């Protein structure tokens, strides 16, 4: 029982944090909250729409993700081997899927990942979520 979906938009990385103290309390925030929050919400909505009327996966999960980035007009290289980092894109994707509350209980269930960054006409991410082995 795989789920396949596409999230349109510019993929956003999640990684670096900024910490500060406000009113005697430590506060930790993402460095790019204005872009990251809407991206994770879009991922959550697409994942939830794909998984509607299905039980959440309870066991180990495989995720395939292909991040499509727009090629800047001045860039001639074949692959986007520059920022954003692939691992940070994946972190935002997995947390967004978890935020959906529909696909799995937590992204710690992900035991296999196949992911890539490519240039393309329609920025976003193509995602396939599959239970591993006999799990469902």
Describe the fold and architecture.
- It contains 2 helices and 6 strands, in the order βββαβαββ.
- It is globular.
- It has helices at residues 33-51, 86-100; strands at residues 3-8, 17-22, 25-30, 61-69, 110-119, 124-131.
- The chain has one domain (3-131): 60s Ribosomal Protein L30, Chain: A.
- With 136 residues, it is an alpha+beta fold.
- The longest helix is centred in the N-terminal third of the chain and has 19 residues, at 33-51.
- The strands form 2 sheets. Strands 1-6-4-5 form a 4-stranded mixed beta sheet, with helices on one face. It has a two-stranded antiparallel ribbon with strand order 2-3.
- Helix 1 (33-51) packs across helix 2.
- The model has no long low-confidence stretch (mean pLDDT 93).
Summarize the structure in short.
By secondary structure, the chain is of the alpha+beta class. The chain has helices spanning 33-51, 86-100; strands at 3-8, 17-22, 25-30, 61-69, 110-119, 124-131.
Task: Give keywords.
2 helices, 33% strand, globular, 136 residues, alpha+beta, two-stranded antiparallel sheet, four-stranded mixed beta sheet, 60s Ribosomal Protein L30, Chain: A, 25% helix
The unreliable regions are none
Question: What spatial form do the alpha-carbon principal axes imply?
Answer: globular
What can be said about the biggest beta sheet?
4 strands, mixed
Count of the domains: 1
Q: Span between N and C termini?
A: 7 Å
Instruction: Tell me the structural class.
Output: alpha+beta
Q: Which second-level CATH architecture applies?
A: 2-Layer Sandwich
Mean pLDDT: 93
Helix content: 25-40%
Element-level helix/strand string: EEEHEHEE
- The fourth-level CATH homologous superfamily is Holliday junction resolvase RusA
